[in-house]
Prior knowledge:
Layout: H1 14-25, H2 29-34, E1 42-47, H3 55-70, E2 75-80, H4 88-97, E3 102-106, H5 107-110, H6 130-137, H7 140-147, E4 154-164, E5 166-169, E6 184-187, H8 191-199, E7 203-206, H9 212-217, E8 223-226, H10 228-233, E9 242-244, E10 250-258, H11 259-263, H12 267-301, E11 305-307, H13 311-332, H14 334-347
Amino acid sequence: MRFPSQYRVPRAWVLPCLVVLALLAAPLREAEVAAPAGRGPVVLKFSHNQPTITIPHQAAVLFKQLVEERTQGYYDVQIFPAQQLGGLRDQVEQTMLGTIEVTQQPAAILSLFVPKVMLLDFPFLWPQQEEVMWQILDGPLGQELLQALAAKPLKGVDIWSSGFKHVTTSKKPIRALADFTGLKMRVIPSQLLSAQYEAWGASPTPVDFKELYTALEQGLVDGQENPAGTILDLRLYEVQKFLTESRHGFLHYLIVFHQPWFDAQTPAHQAILVQAMHEAGQWERLATRDRDAEALQRLKEAGVQVQTLTGEAREQLRQRSLQVHAHFAERVGKDYLQRVYAAITQAAP
């Protein structure tokens, strides 16, 4: 197994990653042998929003390597990073139409088309133990959410990680709920994320991901939310003085194929595509988790003033966030939300 060359993998977790991927690959051997011969290559366009230095892009490269090797070049996986094929919503719409075969997009964008997906962005929903969240999302409840995308028609095959979100600001640090009052906070265009900041007393302002740095630099918005790795990779620390280690939500990337295109592939090729995406996703999750810990330290070294919420402050924000849960419960399905609550309670240590 070759890891993407551009990303320097810390030696401490190279071996665990290899072990995980080897175990995941075992069930695929039969499918690999059964992969039908074809003239090929069949172009498979994979679009996403991240720069090429990021872990999600490197995971896309890993997917490309796995698919092309296991199908003996039947597929030509062409990766289009950094919104080369359009804005976030544009890429989803193109995937629905079939001009893009597969895209990786944040839950907030896909929730514009399938409201059930907005559950992933509920503030203060997920426990701080990341493994508990993945235990739930890799089980039946996660599959139910991915299957809801089929109506668009999108084939949801996996959920990747960008890490727990933190809040950064330029004017003042966020230590408590009251500190959000009057701040203009950038959000992905999303009713739920806008409602989150309104509940916290801030003014949400939608800004495209590609324009985020400029909007912060020019003062069009006062702050934003993202995982530490993204804040570092996009150099947002250059225009944001304060970071609150809030971990108030988790930024998930959903991997979706154009459903008719996927259905037209042979069963053996479908198995290879899905398995390769899962393997790339497992690598991506592990790499992101460790990358975020490293990124937070590097942000401190770059001069960012890092705040930690007290237990009281977290509880204030959580209580306001429960109002957001209640407001959007019908959109995601009240029964589904209750089953997620129950699963979190049961799984939490």
